[in-house]
Amino acid sequence: MVRDRIERIGVVGAGTMGSGIAQVAATHGYDVVMRDIEREFVDSGFETIDASLGRLESRDAIADDPETIRDRIEGTTLIDDLSDCDLVVEAALEEMDVKKEVFADLERVCDEDVLLATNTSTLSITSIASDLEHPERVIGLHFMNPVPIMEGVEVVVGEKTTDAATELAHDLAEELEKTTWEADDKPGFVTNRILMPWINEGIRAFDEGVATKEDIDAGMELGTNVPMGPLTLADHIGLDVCLHASETLHEELGDRYKPAYLLKRKVEAGDLGKKTDKGFYEYE
Ligand SMILES: NC(=O)c1ccc[n+]([C@@H]2O[C@H](COP(=O)([O-])OP(=O)(O)OC[C@H]3O[C@@H](n4cnc5c(N)ncnc54)[C@H](O)[C@@H]3O)[C@@H](O)[C@H]2O)c1
C-alpha cells in the first residue's frame, strides 16, 4: 500500500538535483521539506532556487510569484522533519553507503505507506532497498538536470517495487508536468547506460587530440543534432557525478565500448536505418 494523496513532499539533499526537485514540486503547489546535512548546504539550495525562479519569472514561465513558491519550501537539517511527508525523493550523494543510511533513516521516520524514491543515476534500486523492512515502496525517480527545465523523468522499478508504487511515481511526475519512461533496475537504466560511454568517449577523443574541445562539441551538436556536445554536457552534469556513474557502470558492465553485436548484425542484414526504411524502427 502506498499513500496516493500527496500534499507534502520531502527532498533529501539540497544540491543540484535536490534543490531543483524541491523547486519544481513547490512550483506545482506542493509543500516541500528540503533536508541537507549542514545549514550552509540548505542555504545554498535556496540560493539556487531563488536564482532559477528569478530567471523563470523573467521569461513568464511560472504562474505564481517566486516568493509564494519559495515560501512553500521549508529547509531543515533534521531528518525527523520529514516525518509528516506523504512522499520523499532522495537526492543525496551518489554513494551506496550514503543512500542506504538515508533510506534506513527514512524508514524510521516516515509512515509505512509513504513512497520513498531515489534520484540515483546508476545505483541499483534493489540494493538501496535491500536492508529495509518495506522495500516494496522504494523506486527510482530519476529527474534530469536542470530539473526545472528538463521534461523527462525515468521511473526505475526495483525487484520488490510494487505496481502501485510504480503507478504513483508516474502520476507524481506527470503532476509535475514531466513525461516519464520506465526502466528495469539494470546498471545505468536507459539514460546513463547509453549516455556515459558517449561522454567518456568525448573526453578520450579530446585527451587523444582528435579535435579541440569546441570542435568535439560542435561535431556532435551539428553532426548528430544533440543540443549539447559531450564535454559541455559533462560540465553541466558535474564531472564528479559523471565519474561516480562511470565507475559504477564499469564495475557492473565492464568494457561497453565495442560496437554492439546487434548493431553489426543489423548492418550485415542491410537494415541501415531510415534510408533503408528499417533500422531499429520501421519507417514508411
Ligand atoms: N547532477 C546531475 O546531473 C544528476 C542528474 C540525475 C541524477 N543525479 C543524481 O542525483 C543525486 C544528487 O546529485 P547532485 O548532482 O544533486 O549532487 P550534489 O553534490 O549537488 O548534492 C548532493 C547533496 O546531498 C547532500 N547530502 C549528502 N549526504 C546527505 C544526507 N545523508 N542527507 C541529506 N543530504 C545529504 C550533500 O551535502 C549535497 O548538498 C545523485 O544520486 C546523482 O547521481 C544527478
UniProtKB/TrEMBL annotation:
Please provide, alphabetically and separated by semicolons, the GO molecular function terms listed in this UniProt record: 3-hydroxybutyryl-CoA dehydrogenase activity; NAD+ binding
**Record-linked PANTHER family:** 3-HYDROXYACYL-COA DEHYDROGENASE FAMILY PROTEIN (PTHR48075), 3-HYDROXYBUTYRYL-COA DEHYDROGENASE (PTHR48075:SF5)
- Ranges where the 3-hydroxyacyl-CoA dehydrogenase C-terminal domain occurs: 188-283
* InterPro entries, A to Z: 3-OHacyl-CoA_DH, 3-OHacyl-CoA_DH_NAD-bd, 3HC_DH_C, 6-PGluconate_DH-like_C_sf, 6PGD_dom2, NAD(P)-bd_dom_sf
Q: Does the keyword Oxidoreductase apply?
A: yes
Query: What biological processes does GO assign it?
Result: fatty acid metabolic process
Q: What class of enzyme is it?
A: oxidoreductase
Which Pfam families does the annotation name?
3HCDH, 3HCDH_N
Q: Which UniProt keywords apply?
A: NAD, Oxidoreductase
Q: Show the SUPFAM superfamilies listed in the entry.
A: 6-phosphogluconate dehydrogenase C-terminal domain-like (SSF48179), NAD(P)-binding Rossmann-fold domains (SSF51735)
Q: What's this protein's name?
A: 3-hydroxybutyryl-CoA dehydrogenase
Q: What is its EC number?
A: 1.1.1.157
Q: Where is the 3-hydroxyacyl-CoA dehydrogenase NAD binding domain?
A: 9-181
Gene3D superfamilies for the chain: N-(1-d-carboxylethyl)-l-norvaline Dehydrogenase, domain 2, NAD(P)-binding Rossmann-like Domain
